[in-house]
Input
Amino acid sequence: MSARYVALSGGVGGAKLCLGLSHVLGDRLSIVVNTGDDFEHLGLFVSPDVDTTLYTLSGLVNPETGWGRRDETWTFMRALEGLGGPQWFNLGDGDLALHVERTRRLKAGETLTAITGDVARALGVKPRVLPMSDAPIATIVETDEGVLGFQHYFVRRRCEPVVKRLRFDGAERGTITPEIRAALNDPELRGIIVCPSNPWLSIDPLLAVPGLREALAAAPVPKIAVTPIIDGKAVKGPTAKIMGELGITPDAVAVADHYAGLIDGFVLDEQDASLSARIGTTVALAQTLMRTLDDKIALAQRCIGFCEKLAGRA
Ligand code: FO1
Output
């Protein structure tokens, strides 16, 4: 089978489904990853969602946290503490090498897409990992405590401030990369899968890149989204809290409504089957909670089968 798929992903939850998809599709999968969480820290360019995707797909990821590397050492952070340096954002020694090397190559004028492709190859990652933009786009969180950069909100303040509004600074200067356009125009493309990421924090920045939403809509294949909410609770992270603060009922229906116009199908968790009638598009029921690799592969196969059914091929 030469069928190719494109996944849209950000954060730890999205990376889990990408791992399942990579086991099924290998290099026939292209992943468009959120870069709105990227920021400069200690003079280093840190790209958390790209790195979580690369580490998850290579088996290097810390399985407890879902970010950073497993079996990590912390000599750098201890030495930094001794110098009075900031401690709120943890950079393990192995992880640090990636930030140093990426910063070196960006300063030499290379694109984030080219660097990410080389890192993926170095880590043995088969799918194409494509940053949503080579121009910097920063997710900014307007809260009751003022305007915060994403990592300050998410890590330093542990998502405690009340979110009033989200914006994506620099989006208007973004352009869809040639690599993403090629993936969406590939004649072998058979489907587009929006992973169970936080729609507001991880997928909206991606959809804010000029031309991307149009290119997705123009792709002549089914587009499906997988719910990140089960029984009114986010599987991980602040999705339900943020939805409440934005005045949105934290349930799967609100997520499907958020993607209205973009998707042809929605993967709802079996526990929320009673919500099916309120979803405004075709529904597939699945076990969307992914604890094991088999869960991730099974959900990936369910998504691919759903795309084939929507395309009238199954
Ligand atoms: N998340 C934390 O909660 N604490 C950290 O110290 C932390 C460090 C970190 C370093 C590199 C990296 O790629 C991710 C890191 N994250 C940390 C996770 C990161 O903030 C989130 O995974 C994404 O930005 C949201 O998905």
About this structure: The chain is about 40% helix and 20% strand. Residues 125 and 172 are 31 Å apart (CA to CA). The mean pLDDT is 96.
